[in-house]
Fold:
Amino acid sequence: MDTLMKKAQIFKLGKSPVVVLPVRAWELISERANMLEEYYQMSNSKKYKKDIANARRSKKEIPANALYEKLGLI
Structure:
């Protein structure tokens, strides 16, 4: 975040400060904000928490080769 703020330029427009960022810096900030919003929604979802609890209780194991095939890594 510090590197993004180093690229920022602060001007005054009348009495209000205005921050000017490069487009790429704004896109990075926007992506991070969206990701944090998704994490927040997941952490508050009852279904998500229930699914995690069920997965942790499950004793089902998947071999690494089968997992790689499902993910298309082989």
